[in-house]
Amino acid sequence: MTKNNVMLVTGCGGMLGEAVYNFFKDKCKVFATDIDINEKWLSYLDVNSVSSLKKTCDKIKPNFIIHLVALTDLEYCESNPEKAYQINTWGVYNVVAEAHKRKIPLVCMSTAGVFDGLKGKYKEDDLPNPISIYGKSKYLSELIACSYEKAIVIRAGWMIGGGPKKDKKFVNKIIQKINAGNEEIAVVNDKFGSPSYTYDLVKVMYFLLKNKKYGLFHGCCGGSCNRLDIANQIISLMGMSDKIKIKIVDSKYFNKDYFAPRPVSENLINSKLNLIGVNLTRDWRDALKDYLGRFDWLSHK
Fold first, then answer.
1. How many C-alpha atoms does 250 have within 13 Å on its Cβ side?
2. Is the model's pLDDT at 148 over the cut of 90?
3. Domains (range + CATH), the chain
4. Is the dihedral of CA 69, 57, 94, 5 positive or negative?
5. To the nearest whole percent, how much of the chain has pLDDT over 90?
6. 52, 156, 260, 280 from 251: Cα distances, Å
7. Rounded to an integer, what is the distance from CA 180 to the centroid of its chain?
8. In sequence order, what are the residues at sequence separation of 6 or more whose Cβ sits closer than 8 angstroms to the Cβ of residue 288?
9. Neighbours of 19 (CB within 10 A)
10. Please, is 46 exposed, middle or buried when counting C-beta atoms within 10 Å of its C-beta (0-12, 13-18, 19+)?
C-alpha cells in the first residue's frame, strides 16, 4: 500500500468509518463514501445501485475496497427482512463483483451474531447458526465474500468507537443515561460477548491487507465480559460509582424495545491472528479506557 494507491471505503459515515478514514488517510488516497453525508470528506454512494458503484469505481480506479455498509439495528432488520437482505447481503454481492472484476483486495465486516450463542466462545472454524434476520443476512454476506480469493472478512464483536456523535451502541447509550442525570441504570447480566474497538480493528485491516492474508478472521478485544461488566467499567472510569446505582436485570426486562433474538454468548477468539502471532487488539478494559479518554463526552449531554 502506497500513498498513490486509491482506497474506496463504503459506509464510511458510521462509527467504524470514522476510525478507518482517520487511519488510512495518511497511508493512501481514501475515497470515503456513504448515503449519509455527515462529514465534509464523504461522497455519496449507494452500493445497491450497480450502475452507481460501477461509475464510481471507473472514475477513481481503486486499488483496495473496504466495505462497511450494513444495517446493524437488529430490531429494524427483524421487522424489515427484505431491506436487511438487500443491504447486508446483496450490497456485498455488488461490491464483491466489482472487486473481482478489478482483481483488487476487498475487506468486508461481519459479526459475532452469525452464531447461535450456545457455545461459550467461538473460533473462525466454528459452524455459524444465526438466530436473527440480521445474523442470517450477515452470514450470507460472509459466504458471498469468501467466494472471492482476495477477500478479507473480519467478524467483530460488540463495537466500541465513533465518539459521541456516531456511537449508537451500548457504550454511548450508558453515557447518555449518565449525562441525562439518571441515578439508577438498568443493565442486563445474561448476555456475554467480546468488544471490538474500532481503533484496533483498523490496525487488523491494515496488517491483513499489507500482508495479503485473505480469508475469514475474528477481530475482537482480549478478554470476555457481559453487559454489566462494561457498564460498571464505564461508571468507574467516569468517576460516577458513588452517584449511580446499577439495577441488574435479565434480557426480558427490555423485551419490548429489543425484541430481536440475540445470542446468549457472542464471545469471539482471534484464533487465526493468534496462530500467526499477531496481537493488534487490546484487552477490552484498556480499549474502553482509551475510548473514553478520546472524546469530551460531557459536552454532548
1. 3
2. yes
3. 6-163+195-222+268-282 (3.40.50.720)
4. negative
5. 96
6. 42, 22, 11, 32
7. 26
8. 160, 171, 195, 197, 230, 233, 234, 237
9. 23
10. middle
For the segment 132-141, the average pLDDT, to the nearest whole number, is 98
Please tell me whether the overall predicted TM-score, pTM, comes out greater than 0.85 for this model. Answer: yes
Q: Dihedral, CA atoms, 135, 117, 234, 188, nearest 10 degrees?
A: 100
Output the DSSP codes for 129-174. Answer: ---SHHHHHHHHHHHHHHTSTTEEEEEE-EEE-SHHHH--SHHHHH
Alpha carbons within 13 A on the beta-carbon side of 102: 24
The residue ranges of DSSP E strands in the chain, in sequence order, are: 6-10, 29-34, 42-44, 64-67, 106-111, 121-122, 151-156, 158-160, 184-188, 192-193, 195-197, 215-218, 225-226, 245-249, 265-268
Residue at grid coordinates 472471492 = 148
Report the DSSP beta bridge partners of residue 154: 109, 217
Cβ-based burial of 198 (10 A; exposed 0-12, middle 13-18, buried ≥19):
buried
- Compute the residue count for the chain: 301
